[in-house]
Amino acid sequence: MFVSDRIVFLELQKTGCTHIRKLLKDLVGGELVDKHDQASPRLFRNDRFFLGSIRDPWDWYVSKWAFGCDGKGAVFNNVTKEGLRIRGRGWKAHPYLRLIDLLESRPNRHAQEWRRTYQDANDAGAFRAWLHMLHDPDYWPDIGEGYRQCALSQFAGLLTYRYMKLFTCKRGELRELRAVATPAQLAEHESKRCFIDYFVRNEELEASLLEALRLAKVPVSQEAIADIMSRPKTNTSSKKHGASYYYDDETEKLVAERERFIIGKFGYRAPSAKAAAAAESPGYRGGQGTASIHSGAFVGQYSPGFG
Asked: Is 29 within the bounds of a domain?
């Protein structure tokens, strides 16, 4: 989480948050406070502008897995460690919350299976095996983060869980989220409790960040704009292929079901749909539909999710 006098940026992992944070630091000052953590209630003062980030779910899962192939990331660290993980839980910052998380944990007995899926960031078969494990209830205790204890895990994926935990719950306020038991309740919860003023899309990162700054009434010079548009991305994984390389029909549909909320709200399209549109129209740029990226702009209908 990045905090300045004017802007609070909540960092959803693998959505370009490291790059966004670096740009914000140069533009508005501020500091990193509890990376990837929930917002403290004290931050909701002084009329701050709350910023979030989001990414195409199909691409997010590939990026999350490929990051693990590089030996990085919270999911990789959790699922590849045998037994109960004691270290690396953030004890110093939140000892009480981490103790609850530990008490609700189950020893990991699948570490070798998980490690086999992280051998090569260009192995589509390994990615698909990993994705199926990630959405199999037998493996949810390995993931940690409170995902297994949340009823929404029965119909929603890890990206939706992290989105809800970060953007609809202030620190220590998970009781309401844990009570969400149906897709309809999830949509209602997000509509009432999402406090993000604007979402930066990873796919249009620089342009949507500039739009966020405009809405936050932060002046940006033409020189700064040129710098933003020209900077290389940071904290990327070693994958060499686009999302469509990794998915088959089954795994593409799995993400479509499990991340239905994110896809509906932000208008994302599956890799096969984007490929078909590109084939029909040479000028197609991979657009994500017309859904707004402001808070509370859910578009689409729900039906029961996967499982």
From this structure: yes
The continuous run of DSSP H or E covering 198 comes out as: strand 198-201
The structure tokens listed for 97 are 């919350």
* b/e sequence 199-217, b meaning 16+ C-beta within 10 Å: bbbbbebbebbbebbeebe
Token match 């990873």: residue?
202
Of 134, 127, 181, 173, residue with least CA distance to 155: 181
287: in domain: no
- Helices 57-69/124-134 angle, 10° precision: 110
The domain tally of the chain equals 1
227 within a domain of the structure (yes/no)? yes
| Partners of 8 in beta bridges | 3, 50
The alpha-helical segments, DSSP class H, found in the chain are: 17-28, 57-69, 74-79, 95-103, 111-116, 124-134, 140-143, 158-167, 175-178, 183-193, 205-215, 222-230, 243-246, 249-258, 260-266, 271-280
Domain that holds residue 200: 2-280
DSSP state of 2: E
Q: Does 261 reside within a domain?
A: yes
* Contacting residues for 90 by C-beta, under 8 A, at least 6 apart: 98
For 172-192, what is each residue's pLDDT tens digit? Answer: 788 899 999 999 999 999 999
State the pLDDT at residue 284.
59
